């Protein structure tokens, strides 16, 4: 790493103790940025990096609610409003027991660069709670969401901060959150949240957008080697919103998706995963992946273990951070891996990224490859602002253009900085320069 940036990195890490995921995200970005500071010493003079690593605002609050047995439960809520140089803070809410400040900050930090890469006018933020929705009734989830919003509402707004979904937060949760916001404020402010239902201000394609976008980005990478998804053998991790829609899109482009996972285990379906059955089990019944294996002959379910033990030519990690380590990466490379598109945020460890890059595997980092979700959220905001709603075809076309554009920007930036094919460098520099220039123009704030 560049010596000038090392000193700034050390200060950032010391100022934020115990936040391993945030440290990891910061270090990964800093490793790309040396050459930018050679060309732009003014960024150093204006302390752009120091400012970027310090969120503009961090909100932590108590979320009290009662469970179905009448017992009082207490969770912790977070919203980190990281950077508003390019637009209102924008980013999802994650409900998962692992959530703490370090995870929210890593996600918020990544979101700044991701949102810049989309070319849309959105800043970076993230939030969530250590609430675990697994096994909770609809009524419990509703009471939790209502309590969460009873604090959050005062911090958000169409021009301020626009949350959406992430792990554990989908259409059901956005509905309860939106209802409570409307009730407290007495405003039908559609643009305050994205990921809404289609009859009440949502956008077509938003549910599919992250998974579709990841596959579109990966297809663009494959094209640079004269390949495509057609005929690829694909393994996907996770079986949530991003994973299911990535599977659907990869299939539609001619790939065979042979495996996917949840936090309990994974399935191998050599005939190609049946998306209809997967949606039924996971989205309608909110069941577990092993239920899929029970219902479809010829499918094996592996309890525990790692889905990355299954050979693939294309790997799409779509579950969570640090789910794919150096050992798994080396195994995948030995099995003939051609490309990795990160649907999740930071799913590959730094060791894994190094293994992929050394082996010459096409590697699309999450902040570029999974930007289709937030980009389509920005399209939802556009539709809300103009009180309009677009067709599926038109919206999907916009998403495709955006993903092809992000791929182009990453590739062109990597070329410009003398590292062709290095999408990590391209995404980090491409996103950073845009935010840095806007911060410089807006003065010391
Ligand atoms: P969902 O809640 O819909 O699905 C999450 C999936 O990942 C589930 O299959 C879940 O399994 C699995 N998973 C979650 N945590 C773990 C864990 N600690 N270990 C193993 N498996 C785990 O979330 P999304 O699909 O929305 O999000 C998946 C990833 O994509 C996240 O990294 C998210 O930040 C990222 N992302 C999401 C976007 C969106 O629009 N939703 C946009 C861009 C990125 P189980 O059910 O067993 O918990
Ligand atoms: O990580 C992400 O980009 C998301 N969870 C989507 C954020 C959004 O505002 O749509």
Describe the protein in words:
With 445 residues, the protein is α/β, with parallel strands linked by helices. Among the domains are: 55-188, Rossmann fold; 207-369, Rossmann fold, CATH 3.40.50. 48% of the residues lie in helices and 15% in strands. The chain has a 7-stranded mixed beta sheet, sandwiched between helices. Strands 1-2-4-3-5 form a 5-stranded mixed beta sheet, with helices on both faces. The longest helix is centred in the last third of the chain and has 25 residues, at 392-416. The protein is globular. The protein starts with a helix and ends with a helix. The relative contact order is 0.13. The structure holds NADPH dihydro-nicotinamide-adenine-dinucleotide phosphate and (2Z)-2-iminopentanedioic acid (2IT). Residues 165-168, 210, 238-243, 262-264, 318-320, 323, 343-345, 370, 373 line the site of NADPH dihydro-nicotinamide-adenine-dinucleotide phosphate.
């Amino acid at each position: 790493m560049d010596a000038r940036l090392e000193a700034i990195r050390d200060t950032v890490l010391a100022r934020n103790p115990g936040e391993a995921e945030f440290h990891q995200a910061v270090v990964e970005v800093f490793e790309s940025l040396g050459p930018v500071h050679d060309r732009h010493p003014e960024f150093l003079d204006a302390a752009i990096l120091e400012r970027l690593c310090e969120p503009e605002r961090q909100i932590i609050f108590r979320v009290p609610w009662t469970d179905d047995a009448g017992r009082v439960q207490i969770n912790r809520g977070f919203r980190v409003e990281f950077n508003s140089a390019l637009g209102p803070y924008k980013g999802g809410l994650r409900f998962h027991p692992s959530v703490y400040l370090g995870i929210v900050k890593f996600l918020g930090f990544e979101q700044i660069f991701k949102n810049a890469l989309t070319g849309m006018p959105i800043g970076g933020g993230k939030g969530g709670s250590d609430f675990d929705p697994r096994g909770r009734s609809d009524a419990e989830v509703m009471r939790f969401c209502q309590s969460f919003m009873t604090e959050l509402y005062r911090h958000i707004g169409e021009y301020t901060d626009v949350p959406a979904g992430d792990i554990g937060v989908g259409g059901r949760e956005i509905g309860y959150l939106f209802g409570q916001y409307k009730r407290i404020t007495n405003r039908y402010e559609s643009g305050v949240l994205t990921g809404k239902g289609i009859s009440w201000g949502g956008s077509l394609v938003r549910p599919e957008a992250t998974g579709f976008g990841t596959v579109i980005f990966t297809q663009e990478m494959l094209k640079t080697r004269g390949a495509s998804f057609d005929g690829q053998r694909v393994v996907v991790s996770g079986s949530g919103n991003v994973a299911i829609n990535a599977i659907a899109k990869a299939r539609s482009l001619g790939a065979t998706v042979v495996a996917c996972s949840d936090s309990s285990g994974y399935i191998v379906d050599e005939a190609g995963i049946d998306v209809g059955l997967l949606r039924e089990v996971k989205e309608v019944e909110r069941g577990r992946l092993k239920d899929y294996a029970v219902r479809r002959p010829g499918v094996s379910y592996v309890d525990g273990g790692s889905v990355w033990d299954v050979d693939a030519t294309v790997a799409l990690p779509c579950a969570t951070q640090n789910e794919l380590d150096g050992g798994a990466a080396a195994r995948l490379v030995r099995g003939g891996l051609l490309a990795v598109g990160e649907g999740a945020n930071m799913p590959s460890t730094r060791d894994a990224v190094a293994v992929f890059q050394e082996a010459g595997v096409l590697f699309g980092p999450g902040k570029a490859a999974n930007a289709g979700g937030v980009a389509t959220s920005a399209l939802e905001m556009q539709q809300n602002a103009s009180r309009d709603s677009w067709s599926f075809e038109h919206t999907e076309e916009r998403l495709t253009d955006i993903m092809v554009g992000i791929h182009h920007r990453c590739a062109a930036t990597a070329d410009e900085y003398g590292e062709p094919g290095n999408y990590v460098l391209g995404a980090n520099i491409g996103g950073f320069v845009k935010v840095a220039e806007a911060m410089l123009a807006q003065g010391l704030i």
